[in-house]
Protein backbone atom coordinates (compact mmCIF):
# COMPACT_ATOMS: atom_id res chain seq x y z
CA UNK A 1 0.00 0.00 0.00
CA UNK A 2 2.94 2.26 0.73
CA UNK A 3 4.04 2.05 -2.91
CA UNK A 4 0.56 2.89 -4.20
CA UNK A 5 0.48 5.85 -1.82
CA UNK A 6 3.87 7.05 -3.11
CA UNK A 7 2.73 6.69 -6.71
CA UNK A 8 -0.39 8.60 -5.84
CA UNK A 9 1.63 11.46 -4.39
CA UNK A 10 3.03 12.03 -7.86
CA UNK A 11 -0.46 12.87 -9.05
CA UNK A 12 -1.00 16.59 -8.56
CA UNK A 13 -4.46 17.84 -7.83
CA UNK A 14 -5.71 20.45 -5.46
CA UNK A 15 -9.16 19.03 -5.40
CA UNK A 16 -9.68 17.30 -2.09
CA UNK A 17 -12.63 15.26 -3.36
CA UNK A 18 -10.62 13.82 -6.27
CA UNK A 19 -7.71 12.91 -4.04
CA UNK A 20 -10.12 11.16 -1.68
CA UNK A 21 -11.61 9.07 -4.52
CA UNK A 22 -8.12 8.27 -5.83
CA UNK A 23 -7.02 7.08 -2.42
CA UNK A 24 -10.15 4.96 -2.05
CA UNK A 25 -9.53 3.48 -5.50
CA UNK A 26 -5.93 2.64 -4.55
CA UNK A 27 -6.99 0.94 -1.31
CA UNK A 28 -9.62 -1.03 -3.20
CA UNK A 29 -7.13 -2.32 -5.79
CA UNK A 30 -4.58 -3.14 -3.10
CA UNK A 31 -7.09 -5.22 -1.15
CA UNK A 32 -8.30 -7.01 -4.29
CA UNK A 33 -4.69 -7.91 -5.18
CA UNK A 34 -4.03 -9.25 -1.69
CA UNK A 35 -7.19 -11.34 -2.09
CA UNK A 36 -5.60 -12.95 -5.17
CA UNK A 37 -7.92 -11.38 -7.73
CA UNK A 38 -6.30 -11.65 -11.17
CA UNK A 39 -6.42 -9.27 -14.14
CA UNK A 40 -6.25 -6.15 -11.98
CA UNK A 41 -3.51 -4.43 -14.00
CA UNK A 42 -5.69 -4.50 -17.13
CA UNK A 43 -8.81 -3.64 -15.14
CA UNK A 44 -7.07 -0.61 -13.67
CA UNK A 45 -5.93 0.57 -17.12
CA UNK A 46 -9.51 0.45 -18.42
CA UNK A 47 -11.03 1.90 -15.25
CA UNK A 48 -11.12 5.59 -16.28
CA UNK A 49 -10.78 8.11 -14.86
CA UNK A 50 -9.47 7.12 -11.41
CA UNK A 51 -8.11 3.62 -12.02
CA UNK A 52 -6.32 4.94 -15.12
CA UNK A 53 -4.84 7.85 -13.16
CA UNK A 54 -3.50 5.40 -10.63
CA UNK A 55 -2.16 3.19 -13.44
CA UNK A 56 -0.41 6.20 -15.00
CA UNK A 57 1.01 7.23 -11.62
CA UNK A 58 2.45 3.74 -11.03
CA UNK A 59 3.88 3.62 -14.56
CA UNK A 60 5.52 7.00 -14.03
CA UNK A 61 6.91 5.99 -10.67
CA UNK A 62 8.43 2.75 -12.00
CA UNK A 63 9.79 4.31 -15.19
CA UNK A 64 11.49 7.07 -13.16
CA UNK A 65 13.85 4.43 -11.80
CA UNK A 66 15.34 3.38 -15.15
CA UNK A 67 15.45 4.27 -18.83
CA UNK A 68 16.60 0.79 -19.86
CA UNK A 69 14.81 -2.51 -20.23
CA UNK A 70 15.46 -4.59 -17.11
CA UNK A 71 16.14 -7.69 -19.21
CA UNK A 72 17.83 -6.79 -22.52
CA UNK A 73 19.14 -3.37 -21.37
CA UNK A 74 17.94 -1.59 -24.51
CA UNK A 75 16.82 2.01 -24.10
CA UNK A 76 13.10 2.44 -23.50
CA UNK A 77 11.01 5.50 -24.31
CA UNK A 78 7.55 6.55 -23.15
CA UNK A 79 4.94 6.13 -25.89
CA UNK A 80 7.36 4.10 -28.01
CA UNK A 81 8.65 0.84 -26.53
CA UNK A 82 8.17 1.18 -22.78
CA UNK A 83 6.13 -1.38 -20.86
CA UNK A 84 5.81 -2.17 -17.17
CA UNK A 85 6.67 -5.79 -16.49
CA UNK A 86 5.51 -7.91 -13.56
CA UNK A 87 8.62 -9.95 -12.73
CA UNK A 88 6.49 -12.59 -11.04
CA UNK A 89 3.57 -12.68 -13.51
CA UNK A 90 0.43 -11.09 -12.09
CA UNK A 91 -1.68 -13.91 -13.52
CA UNK A 92 0.16 -16.43 -11.30
CA UNK A 93 1.07 -14.21 -8.33
CA UNK A 94 -1.84 -11.73 -8.24
CA UNK A 95 -0.97 -10.70 -4.68
CA UNK A 96 2.11 -8.91 -6.08
CA UNK A 97 0.32 -6.98 -8.85
CA UNK A 98 1.08 -3.66 -7.11
CA UNK A 99 4.23 -4.58 -5.20
CA UNK A 100 7.09 -2.22 -6.00
CA UNK A 101 9.78 -4.95 -5.96
CA UNK A 102 7.79 -6.84 -8.59
CA UNK A 103 7.54 -4.00 -11.13
CA UNK A 104 10.22 -3.02 -13.63
CA UNK A 105 10.55 -1.19 -16.91
CA UNK A 106 10.82 -3.55 -19.89
CA UNK A 107 10.88 -3.04 -23.62
CA UNK A 108 7.84 -4.15 -25.60
CA UNK A 109 9.76 -7.09 -27.10
CA UNK A 110 10.93 -8.54 -23.77
CA UNK A 111 7.55 -7.95 -22.19
CA UNK A 112 5.73 -9.69 -25.05
CA UNK A 113 8.15 -12.62 -25.20
CA UNK A 114 8.14 -13.05 -21.42
CA UNK A 115 4.35 -12.72 -21.30
CA UNK A 116 2.87 -14.80 -18.44
CA UNK A 117 5.81 -17.18 -18.18
CA UNK A 118 6.97 -17.90 -14.65
CA UNK A 119 10.76 -18.29 -14.47
CA UNK A 120 10.78 -18.48 -10.69
CA UNK A 121 8.20 -21.10 -9.61
CA UNK A 122 8.10 -20.01 -6.00
CA UNK A 123 6.50 -22.42 -3.58
CA UNK A 124 3.76 -20.82 -1.50
CA UNK A 125 5.19 -17.28 -1.36
CA UNK A 126 2.21 -16.04 0.69
CA UNK A 127 1.30 -12.38 0.91
CA UNK A 128 4.78 -10.99 1.43
CA UNK A 129 7.21 -10.52 -1.43
CA UNK A 130 10.35 -12.68 -1.09
CA UNK A 131 13.37 -10.51 -0.33
CA UNK A 132 16.82 -10.29 -1.88
CA UNK A 133 18.17 -13.19 0.17
CA UNK A 134 15.63 -15.55 -1.32
CA UNK A 135 17.23 -18.26 -3.42
CA UNK A 136 16.08 -16.83 -6.75
CA UNK A 137 16.58 -19.51 -9.41
CA UNK A 138 16.47 -16.95 -12.20
CA UNK A 139 17.87 -13.41 -12.53
CA UNK A 140 15.59 -10.96 -10.70
CA UNK A 141 15.93 -7.39 -12.04
CA UNK A 142 15.24 -5.73 -8.68
CA UNK A 143 17.08 -8.07 -6.32
CA UNK A 144 20.09 -8.82 -8.55
CA UNK A 145 22.74 -6.59 -10.12
CA UNK A 146 22.65 -7.10 -13.89
CA UNK A 147 26.40 -7.05 -14.57
CA UNK A 148 27.05 -9.64 -11.87
CA UNK A 149 24.84 -12.17 -13.63
CA UNK A 150 24.83 -11.34 -17.34
CA UNK A 151 27.33 -10.15 -19.95
CA UNK A 152 25.78 -8.28 -22.85
CA UNK A 153 27.41 -7.94 -26.28
CA UNK A 154 26.13 -5.77 -29.09
CA UNK A 155 27.45 -5.88 -32.66
CA UNK A 156 26.32 -3.04 -34.83
CA UNK A 157 27.33 -2.11 -38.38
CA UNK A 158 25.59 -0.25 -41.19
CA UNK A 159 23.58 -3.36 -41.94
CA UNK A 160 23.28 -5.46 -38.84
CA UNK A 161 22.42 -5.03 -35.20
CA UNK A 162 22.93 -8.22 -33.25
CA UNK A 163 22.88 -8.82 -29.55
CA UNK A 164 24.19 -11.70 -27.50
CA UNK A 165 23.85 -12.44 -23.80
CA UNK A 166 25.95 -14.72 -21.66
CA UNK A 167 24.92 -15.86 -18.21
CA UNK A 168 27.71 -15.56 -15.62
CA UNK A 169 25.85 -17.31 -12.82
CA UNK A 170 23.14 -19.97 -12.72
CA UNK A 171 20.52 -17.21 -12.33
CA UNK A 172 22.06 -15.37 -15.30
CA UNK A 173 22.08 -18.51 -17.41
CA UNK A 174 18.43 -19.08 -16.51
CA UNK A 175 17.28 -15.67 -17.79
CA UNK A 176 19.39 -16.11 -20.94
CA UNK A 177 17.87 -19.52 -21.64
CA UNK A 178 14.34 -18.51 -20.72
CA UNK A 179 14.20 -15.11 -22.39
CA UNK A 180 17.29 -13.39 -23.79
CA UNK A 181 18.07 -16.09 -26.35
CA UNK A 182 14.60 -15.50 -27.78
CA UNK A 183 15.08 -11.72 -27.72
CA UNK A 184 18.34 -11.98 -29.70
CA UNK A 185 16.76 -14.42 -32.15
CA UNK A 186 13.70 -12.21 -32.56
CA UNK A 187 15.84 -9.22 -33.45
CA UNK A 188 18.16 -11.18 -35.75
CA UNK A 189 15.17 -12.48 -37.69
CA UNK A 190 13.59 -9.05 -37.82
CA UNK A 191 16.67 -7.24 -39.14
CA UNK A 192 17.13 -9.93 -41.80
CA UNK A 193 13.95 -8.68 -43.43
CA UNK A 194 13.50 -4.88 -43.38
CA UNK A 195 9.80 -5.09 -44.24
CA UNK A 196 9.11 -7.43 -41.34
CA UNK A 197 11.28 -5.30 -39.07
CA UNK A 198 9.23 -2.23 -40.01
CA UNK A 199 5.96 -4.10 -39.48
CA UNK A 200 7.09 -5.31 -36.04
CA UNK A 201 8.21 -1.82 -35.17
CA UNK A 202 4.84 -0.35 -36.18
CA UNK A 203 3.01 -3.01 -34.21
CA UNK A 204 5.19 -2.50 -31.14
CA UNK A 205 4.68 1.25 -31.26
CA UNK A 206 0.92 0.83 -31.62
CA UNK A 207 0.80 -1.67 -28.77
CA UNK A 208 2.87 0.54 -26.47
CA UNK A 209 0.53 3.46 -27.09
CA UNK A 210 -2.83 1.77 -27.19
CA UNK A 211 -2.62 -1.67 -25.66
CA UNK A 212 -0.36 -1.74 -22.61
CA UNK A 213 -2.35 -4.76 -21.57
CA UNK A 214 -2.12 -6.83 -24.67
CA UNK A 215 -5.06 -8.96 -25.57
CA UNK A 216 -4.47 -12.65 -26.06
CA UNK A 217 -4.83 -12.18 -29.82
CA UNK A 218 -1.93 -9.71 -29.88
CA UNK A 219 0.18 -11.96 -27.71
CA UNK A 220 -0.48 -14.84 -30.09
CA UNK A 221 0.45 -12.66 -33.04
CA UNK A 222 3.77 -11.65 -31.47
CA UNK A 223 4.44 -15.26 -30.58
CA UNK A 224 3.68 -16.39 -34.16
CA UNK A 225 5.96 -13.67 -35.55
CA UNK A 226 8.75 -14.78 -33.25
CA UNK A 227 8.69 -18.35 -34.42
CA UNK A 228 7.64 -18.04 -38.06
CA UNK A 229 9.40 -15.04 -39.59
ZN1 LIG B 1 14.12 -5.73 -23.50
Task: Please outline what is shown here.
The chain is mainly alpha-helical and 229 residues long. Helix content is 49%, strand content 10%. Helix 1 packs across helix 4 and helix 2 packs across helix 4.
Give the helix/strand layout:
Elements: H1 2-9, H2 16-34, H3 40-46, H4 50-63, E1 82-86, E2 103-107, H5 108-114, H6 146-149, E3 150-156, E4 161-167, H7 170-192, H8 194-210, H9 216-228
Antiparallel strand pairs: 1-2, 3-4
Zinc ion (ZN) is lined by residues 69, 71-72, 74, 106-107, 109-110.
Could you explain how this protein is built, in words?
The protein is mainly alpha-helical and 229 residues long. The protein folds into two domains: 1-64, no CATH class; 67-228, no CATH class. It contains nine helices and four strands. The protein has helices spanning 2-9, 16-34, 40-46, 50-63, 108-114, 146-149, 170-192, 194-210, 216-228; strands at residues 82-86, 103-107, 150-156, 161-167. The strands form two sheets. Strands 1-2 form a two-stranded antiparallel ribbon. Strand 3 and strand 4 (161-167) form a beta hairpin. 31% of the residues are buried. The chain binds zinc ion. The site of zinc ion (ZN) has 8 residues, from strand 2 and helix 5. Zinc ion binds next to strand 2 and helix 5.
Entry keywords:
2 domains; two-stranded antiparallel ribbon; single chain; binds zinc ion; mainly alpha
Number of helices: 9
Structural class: mainly alpha
Side-by-side strand order of the widest sheet: 1-2
Rg = 18 Å
Distance between the termini: 43 Å
Low-confidence stretches: none
- What would the principal axes of the Cα set say about the shape? globular
Average pLDDT:
84
- Work out the helicity level: 40-55%
Q: Could you say how many structural domains there are in total?
A: 2
Secondary structure tally: strands: 4
* Biggest sheet layout: 2 strands, antiparallel
Question: What is the percentage of strand-forming residues?
Answer: 5-15%
